[in-house]
Records
---
Amino acid sequence: MPEVPEDWPATAVARRWLSGALAGAVEAVVTMPFELTKTTQQLGTTRVTSKSTPYASTSSSRLGVWGTMRYVVRHHGLAGLYYGLNITLVQTAGKVGIRFTAFEMYRDFLSSIGIPASTFSAGCLAGGTEAAIWITPCERLKVLRQAQIGVRDPIHTDWVSSIRTILRQQGLRGLYRGLWATVLRNGLSIGVRMALYSHIREILRNVHGKQRASFDPLIAGASVGAITTILNNPLDVIKSRIQADAQGGRSKTLRYTSTWGCVKMMVRGEGVSSLLIRGLPARLMKISLGQAVIFSTYEYAQDLTRKLF
């Protein structure tokens, strides 16, 4: 990670936010098919609408990652793999910009007051901040869109109409369904990622004799992405289920009234494995690749923006 500056000029804040936003946008485009596949598997069904089968469902969890992708492409075209891309671009660019800016600010502050393990602590705080400010409402909109692939009369056809529907029927709280699961998932994940990333980069520097190799951020980013994905998959499954609930329009009932209630219903109805491994292969591919892209793009963008301003 870049060194903490002695002062905190506005240009440094702008540089970190722009670098993070660029990294997030690139990551969103590259990994969107895996994101769509992950969410589809976590929700449990892939829906198909056609003249011969007006409304049919099959278990996406049984199809696997590539099977689910082929299923979506066969029935909805390549564009089906990019359902929700517009809100994902906004979400990912915004959240990564917030993440790196907040991380540096928190780490600088915690280090100045002598808090131990400041990298981990600053990462947790940055992850919680991005989740509370940005990720939760964006992921709520994205999950609602992805949950309606193949539905004959979809309620959520674009993110603007989705916002209007949710605010009208459920109020602001409707946009923040799954908040606590998202804050917990992101806070712990970013804390672990930032701490592990620094350690892995140090190990790689020692291997290279203190020289900086261009592929180090890719290796370190992919490694921390894989580790944190395995650790936080249960929270991500819970978040997706809660956020796909209460879709608005004709659907007024809630299956999950709380995070703990969602856990109990899933374990009772689908078993513990539904929390541990539902959507995990797609998430491993998506997040390992995504973190490799984010960290490498961020470091490249940091070098570029230092030359520009």
Note: The longest strand covers residues 45-48.
---
Amino acid sequence: MAEGTVLSKGISFMDPLKGLLLTYFMPESCYDEFFLNFNFLDVPCLKIVLSKGLGIGIILGSVLVKMPQILKLMGARSAEGLSFKTVILELLAITGTMAYSIANKFPFSAWGEALFLMLQTVTIGFLIQHYGGKTSRGLLFLVVYFGLLVLLLSPVTPMSVVTTMQASNMPAIIIGRLIQAATNLRNGHTGQLSAVSVFLLFAGSLARIFTSLQETGDTLMALTYVISSSCNGVIALQILYYWNSSSERKKKKKKKQ
């Protein structure tokens, strides 16, 4: 009898949070396992909660992940060291992942960061053109991109095209990052590349390997994030390698001014 009273108290205590937990973090079977059976070590449910939690964390982080890069460009009023080709290829990869996930009806927690990364990457693409003295070309880039995006997400586009686009993400990511790495190597510094944004992207893509396998079971998506993590890791290593070079360059610029 006492046990039943304790159980009912436990249930009533968790009632206000139940809707939130079931919507974002776990299925009802796991809720019952945790809060009715008090089995907090159930491995399958722990994996689900960890995956959902990481997914939401990545999405929340992605809202601001490229803001340091955007602010750095605007503060310097220069896009030196950033490759527009890299931005285009990165945008292709992000758009492919977003379209593929929407077409396959994957949960938002499995791909939501792609939406925010897309908006920020488009902004960076425009700023590169704008600070390169080609504002009209930047505006044309925005119009063309969003026009193609609407077409891609419409029912007119066959699923085979969306799948092919997702598969093309891997070479797009590799080529895009190689272009950026080659630019850094040629310049001997990383220019206006933001260390904060690079490291956050690297951490996010690593976490996405686990969440994509757990939430979608889609090996194509998981493999894309493996490639993305490796390429982001190369740029992150360059940031560390050229750290002192970038600092010395800034000091020289200040002296000249």
Note: The chain has a mean pLDDT of 83.
